[in-house]
Amino acid sequence: MNRRNFIAATAAGAAAMTLPETEAAPAGIPIIDCHIHLFDTNRKQGVPWPEKKDTVLYKPAFMDRYRKVTAGLGIVGAIEVEASPWFDDNQWVLDLAAKDKMLVGTIGDMEPEKPEFRKQLDNLHKNPLFRGIRYGNLWDRDFTAMLGKPEFIAGLKLMAEADLVMDSANPTPKLIEDLLRLTDKVPNLRIVLDHLPRIERPAAPAALKAYEANLHEFGKRKQVFAKVSGVAKKVNGKVPEDIAPYKATLDEMWEVFGEDRLVYGSDWPNSDLWAEYPVELKIVKAYFATKGPAASEKYFWKNSVAAYKWVHREASQPKA
After folding, report:
1. What is the pTM of this model?
2. Please, what is the Cα angle at 104 between 186 and 255, to 5 degrees?
3. How far apart are CA 163 and CA 149, in angstroms?
4. Helix, strand, or coil here: 299?
C-alpha cells in the first residue's frame, strides 16, 4: 500500500466507529477515564505484567470488575492503555472492546522502528477503536536511542498522518527532554504525557531548572496533552484525601497545559497500589472544582476528545 492510500484507509477507518452522592462527579458532567489497563492473569500464556509476586495487582482485570469499582461515580467511558509488549495482545484487547461499549478506544503497543510496523498499523487501524500506541522507557526500550533512528521517526510520522496519538510511558526528566525533541522531529504528532504527578524531580538545582524549562516548553506545543493521573501518594504511611498535599504538583500542570490540554486518567488497577478508585477520583474532582464547572467538564471529557478522538458508543457518552 502506498503512502497516500495508507493515509486514506486509516482516515476512513477512524471515521467509522462509591462515594456519597455529594462526592460524585459534578452534576451533569460525564467522565471519560483515559487510562485503564486490562489483562487476564489466568491465561495459559500468562501476562508480562503484573508480576505473580504482586499480591495487589496479580488478578484478572476485566471490564466487569472495572464497572463495579466505578459504579455510581459518573464514569461513562474508558480508554484502555497497553499493559503488554506482545503484539498479539493488541488484538486481544480490541476483541474485548468489541464486546463492551464502555470502552471508547485502546492505546496499543507497537515498535515504530520495525520493518513490519506499517503493515501492522494499517491492519490495526482498520478498527476505529485503535487510537494509537504507547512508547517510552518501558519493556526495556531506550527512547533516547530510538530518537536517533530514521526508521523510528518515519514510523511516528505515519502515526501522525493517520491522525493517531502516542502516549508516553513512565515519566522521567530525561524522557521529558526526549519527548520535547520528538515534537521537533514530528511536530504534527499528538502526544499524551502520562503520570506526571509520579515523576521524581531532580534534586540538583541545575537539573531541576532544566527539567522545569523543558516541561514549560510543552506549554507552547499545542499538540501535547497531559494526563492528571497517578496523583495519590502516601504521606506518613497514609494517603491524604484532601487536595493540600497534591496542590503544588497540580498547579504546575495547570500552569503548563491550561484548561484545554489536561485529561483524566485513573491508571486502574495499578492505582490500587496507592488508593481505591473513589479516593483517586475524589482528589482530582476536588481540585478541578476550584477551577469551575467549565474547566471540570473539559478535564473530565471534552479534552479527551481532542487528544484521542475516541469513538462514541453509548448514549450516556457525551458527543463533542
Report:
1. 0.91
2. 50
3. 22
4. helix
Three cell numbers, residue 227: 494526563
Give the tens place of pLDDT for each residue, 176-231.
999 999 999 999 999 999 999 999 999 999 999 999 999 999 999 999 999 999 99
Cβ neighbours of residue 193 closer than 8 Å, sequence gap 6 or more: 168, 171, 176, 179, 218, 224, 225, 226, 227
CB contact at 8 A, 79 and 93:
no
C-alpha cell at 185: 522531529
DSSP H helical ranges for the chain? 3-15, 63-70, 88-98, 117-124, 143-146, 150-161, 173-185, 205-217, 247-257, 277-289, 293-297, 303-308
255 C-beta neighbours (distance < 10 Å), count: 11
Domains of the chain with bracketed CATH: 3-16+30-308 (3.20.20.140)
Residue 244: its H or E element: none
**Alpha-carbon distances of 24 from 273, 285, 286, rounded to whole Å:** 22, 8, 10
Q: Which of 126, 130, 208 is nearest to 165 (CA)?
A: 130
Note the pLDDT tens digit of each residue in 22-39. 344 455 799 999 999 999
Q: In what order do the strands lie in the sheet with 103-108?
A: 31-36, 75-81, 103-108, 130-136, 165-169, 190-193, 224-228, 262-264
Q: Residues 113, 316: contact at Cβ < 8 Å?
A: no
Q: How many CB atoms lie within 10 A of CB 184?
A: 9
Which region, left, alpha or beta, applies to residue 258 given φ > 0 means left and ψ of -120 to 50 means alpha?
A: left
